[in-house]
Inverse folding.
């Protein structure tokens, strides 16, 4: 498995954080491929279901994100016209691990604009 953190190409590289190393752990991979991924193939969610969502939506994207996830972010913007985008510099798909402080600030700002309400 390849990790795209600067200067690292191995899961056991010394410059990986504990969270990044854990995300590459074999047990997690077994759960993902054996349980989670098969469930995703049976899950149906598309434009029709998205049209029913009236709540605010936040899309968080790193500037170093691979093209597949950039396409997914575009699909989210198409499905959720109310989506706000938070772009995190120098982060890829694991942006919450690579740049936790800017991600937390972006989520906090979003929740500040759209506070959760009871009921």
């Amino acid at each position: 498995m390849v990790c795209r953190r600067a200067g690292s190409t191995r899961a056991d590289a010394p410059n990986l954080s504990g969270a990044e190393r854990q995300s590459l752990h074999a047990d997690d991979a077994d759960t993902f491929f054996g349980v989670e991924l098969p469930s995703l193939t049976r899950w149906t969610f598309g434009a029709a279901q998205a049209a029913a969502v009236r709540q605010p939506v936040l899309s968080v994207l790193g500037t170093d994100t691979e093209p597949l996830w950039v396409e997914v972010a575009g699909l989210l913007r198409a499905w959720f016209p109310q989506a706000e985008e938070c772009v995190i510099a120098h982060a890829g798909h694991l942006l919450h691990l690579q740049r936790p402080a800017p991600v937390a600030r972006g989520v906090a700002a979003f929740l500040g604009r759209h506070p959760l309400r009871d009921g």
Summary: The helical segments are 18-23, 26-42, 47-51, 67-79, 95-98, 100-113. The first strand starts at residue 57 and ends at 62. The chain has six helices and two strands.
